[in-house]
Design brief:
heterodimer, A: 567 residues, alpha+beta, 7-stranded mixed beta sheet, B: alpha/beta, 9-stranded mixed beta sheet, two-stranded antiparallel ribbon, 8 helices
């Protein structure tokens, strides 16, 4: 027993939520404390990717001098636009009528990969100042599975030498701050999530541009998304002539082939973006998924005996406010206080940790998630928003009109539709109680026979700024070695059947892949599913959209995978 | 062989070739600012020693020479499975060439013990690229040496080795002690195991135990005359260094035909044109 590898707290994933938690626990520590941080990337931050324009409210609590220190800040938002985009059209929504949650002025432009590395450094510094406080980082060592004693979580399995003493990490409290790689097993086993999580996929490029756009933030709606598809683009101007261009696309759309990297290229062909990136240099590409279900996808319990869910594992992202990083960090901040108390009292049972849920729901996280609870449902109840309103606005903008003119034209042409829109706006912003929302798994929305009606991208663009899906993958700097079998295909005949059902087109795993991993190979007239695992950026989109629930993306081992530093 | 073999693996910390940090505008490297890594060639040497230990038992001792921060390659080696480490560090070793480096390291090995059975080194380093240090140490220790070894098996106290030679390989049987430089066609270094990394994390917090596992020695400890090391003991003179610059050249595309035809055109161009390949790379 004495050889057991034991810590007070095991953190699954060096995510913003878990790192905030570790920092706060070290801050609160008054006696010995041992924390282990498990991370699948080669270095802390190596697999982290986000937009991100973020309310710095939690950052401020950790580092009061965040905007005037060596914190890796990409910039502070000075100008914030909501823009309706067409293949060539571009019209900013006037500030006066822009919904207030789109105004990001004063927010921090972050790259959470470098931020995570920074926080990890600060944790080590702070732990070093306190006698008996230990925080061990294990980059390259993801948690592989959860160790249970009945329904109590007692740690995680980290290695598979076959010797339990060498493979298992035991902890009084295991905190899951992952994107589901491991936490889904806890959620599944204890049946914690009654409403499934609703996901979106984000793709992002970092550019070095000729001109600086520092402090300017655009969120775009419209092109290149198809009718009915929730999502949008984002363009963030950073320090040192860096520019971030990205897109977020919900995964609950009918289209089985949304092709995120290609959609991003098409957005980049818009002349306004072309003007920004022409003559520049692409530095990085990456992709990640976002849990967008919000309030109604939250699990019924945030903590169980021996374990706590935080950040994306819990699902604290608020899609209405584009607020993910701050809420994830706050969930870690609050969990740190609850876990510190539970360890002090020696009660890490479900009852001992239960205070977390109440505290979090009473914080800005719970309040804002509640306020945004019908955001996604608004688009379900008002399909005209994505099917009609935005496409119409895009058409107007494409023909050179401004947003106001376009909206007025829309209202005049369809006054009843205009009134319905007011209802939609109320539902989003000041909702009256209409009962819980039920989501169906994203995969169930996919329609095999969907016929795509994309707008043609602009033809006049600089070829050096646009990459094929196969080329863009190189900019994710993925590296894999031996034991590179991180995507399970449970039953190959099921994939074979799926490929047959999708005759003449790509299956969702192929059509939605962000990194050219999934492919359909044709051999002697027969089509089969194949994977180029060496390309994988670990985004898990394929698992989410697989119509047959036949794929599972596991955490890459030995620090393999993409290199998202600077993302 | 009940006690197993005493094996020394020589490791070197080199500038990280994947990082631009510390590269001066003229192409020279500022070693103080450069990011560091374990010489990639040395990973094959470490793996080979760990394989022998797994097969017949024994002790793997990692040794490095360098400034104090180079100690990190030793804790890294421990995380990979080495048992102990020695850091040879001394200001008087600065600017050592291969002659004086080999001299100092051979003395370090003598210091570690007269009962060392095997010394493993990488083929060469990515910074000096000479591949001279290993063989020089063998000469100084008066040990047989096997260079370019890619396979090694112990049998009846002897090593059966396979050397990579041009156009094939050479099988040899050698008595111990011996020095072996391991080729990069040998087994790659296996990933670290969690329990080993955990042990090193724990060790790093116990200063006494850490100093016991990873010993730091200087020239006086290993009985080296400073005149034979460092700049003083290094006859190598760097005459001149220059930046290679861009290779440049023009690109000739053979396209528009069937692949077979394009290849034929390329071969013809390379073989029959008087200037052949010269023209293509100018």
């Amino acid at each position: 027993m004495s050889d057991r590898i034991e810590y007070d707290v095991a953190l699954v994933g060096a995510s913003p939520s878990n790192l905030t938690l570790a920092y706060r626990m070290v801050e609160l520590a008054t006696g010995p404390l041992r924390i282990a941080v498990l991370e699948k990337a080669k270095e802390v931050g190596g697999h982290l990717l986000s937009g991100a324009v973020s309310n710095p409210r939690v950052l401020k609590k950790l580092f009061p001098d965040w905007d005037n220190s060596d914190f890796p800040l990409e910039g502070i938002c000075k100008k914030s636009y909501l823009t309706i985009v067409g293949p060539t059209g571009w019209a900013d929504v006037p500030q006066l009528v822009m919904p207030p949650h789109f105004d990001k002025r004063g927010y921090a432009i972050l790259n959470i990969s470098d931020m995570a590395a920074y926080i990890a450094g600060k944790i080590a510094e702070k732990a070093g100042e306190k006698e008996g406080v230990v925080v061990d980082f294990y980059p390259g060592f993801p948690a592989r599975s959860i160790l249970f004693d009945g329904d109590t979580v007692i740690g995680v399995k980290v290695d598979d030498t076959g010797d339990e003493t060498a493979d298992n990490l035991y902890a009084k409290v295991t905190v899951f701050g992952d994107k589901g790689f491991v936490s889904r097993d806890l959620v599944g086993k204890l049946n914690l999530r009654q409403n499934p999580q609703a996901w979106a996929v984000g793709v992002k490029e970092v550019w070095e541009t000729k001109e600086s756009h520092e402090g300017q933030v655009w969120h775009t709606a419209g092109y290149p998304l198809e009718k009915g598809h929730l999502g949008g683009g984002f363009i963030y101007g950073c320090k040192n002539n860096k520019l971030i261009v990205g897109m977020v696309m919900a995964l609950d759309h009918e289209n089985p082939n949304i092709r995120p990297p290609i959609a991003l290229q098409n957005l980049k062909k818009n002349p306004v973006i072309q003007e920004m990136i022409k003559g520049g240099k692409l530095l990085k590409y990456g992709a990640s998924v976002l849990p967008e279900g919000g309030y109604y996808s939250l699990p019924k319990k945030f903590a169980v005996s021996g374990a706590v869910l935080v950040g994306d594992a819990l699902g604290t992202l608020d899609v209405k406010r584009f607020s993910g990083v701050d809420k994830a960090m706050e969930s870690g901040y609050i969990a740190a206080e609850v876990i510190t108390g539970a360890l002090f009292k020696g009660d890490t049972s479900e009852a001992g940790l239960a205070g977390f849920q109440e505290k979090l729901m009473n914080s800005f996280v719970g309040k804002e998630l509640y306020d945004s609870r019908y955001f996604k449902r608004t688009f379900q109840e008002h399909p005209e928003l994505l099917n009609n309103v935005i496409p119409t606005l895009v058409n107007h903008v494409e023909s050179g009109r401004g947003v106001i003119t376009a909206s007025v034209a829309y209202g005049l042409a369809d006054p009843i539709g205009g009134l319905k829109l007011l209802g939609a706006k109320t539902m989003m912003d000041n909702p009256s109680e209409i009962g819980p929302t039920k989501y169906n798994e994203d995969r169930t929305h996919i329609n095999k026979s969907y016929s795509s009606v994309p707008l043609e991208p602009a033809e006049d663009y600089d070829e050096d700024t646009i990459h094929t899906a196969a080329d863009i993958v190189f900019y994710a700097h993925t590296h894999y070695g031996e034991e590179n079998k991180h995507i399970d295909e449970f039953d190959s005949s099921v994939c074979g059947q799926c490929v047959e059902e999708y005759e003449g087109r790509d299956t969702p795993c192929v059509g939605d892949c962000t990194a050219e991993v999934h492919q359909i190979l044709e051999k002697e007239g027969k089509r089969t599913h194949a994977m180029a695992l060496e390309n994988c950026v670990q985004c898990t989109t394929c698992e989410i959209v697989c119509p047959k629930t036949n794929l599972r993306v596991n955490a890459a081992l030995h620090g393999y995978g993409p290199d998202f530093s600077g993302m | 062989m009940s006690d197993g073999l005493k094996m020394v693996v020589l490791l070197k910390q080199v500038p990280d070739t994947s990082s631009k940090a510390g590269v001066n505008p003229d192409g020279t490297v500022d070693r103080a600012r450069a990011k560091k890594m374990l010489n990639p060639f040395d990973k094959y040497a470490l793996q080979k020693a760990l394989e022998v230990k797994r097969a017949v038992g024994g002790e793997v001792i990692a040794v490095t020479m360098g400034p104090p921060p180079a100690i990190s390659v030793l804790s890294d080696a421990l995380e990979y499975g080495a048992d102990t480490g020695y850091l040879l560090t001394d200001r008087r070793l600065a600017a050592s060439d291969t002659l004086s480096t080999a001299f100092a390291l051979h003395k370090a090995i003598i210091y570690i013990g007269s009962d060392v059975d095997m010394v493993f080194t990488g083929l060469q380093t990515t910074d000096g690229d000479t591949a001279q240090t290993g063989p020089q140490i063998a000469e100084r220790l008066d040990m047989p040496q096997i260079t370019y070894c890619d396979r090694l098996e112990m049998k009846d106290g002897k090593a059966l080795v396979r050397r990579v030679v041009e156009g094939g390989h050479q099988d040899l049987e050698i008595p111990l002690p011996a020095l072996i430089t391991v080729a990069n066609s040998a087994t790659p270094l296996e990933p670290k195991r969690f329990a080993a990394v955990y042990k090193v994390r724990e060790l790093s917090r116990d200063k006494g135990a850490y100093d016991e596992k990873i010993k730091t020695v200087n020239l006086d400890d290993i009985d080296v005359d400073p005149a034979k090391t460092g700049l003083a003991g290094s006859p190598t003179v760097v005459g001149k260094t220059w930046k290679m610059g861009d290779i440049g050249g023009t690109c000739v595309m053979f396209q528009g035909g069937a692949p077979e035809h394009e290849v034929e055109q390329l071969v013809e161009r390379l073989t029959t044109d008087e200037r052949g390949i010269e023209e293509l790379i100018q």
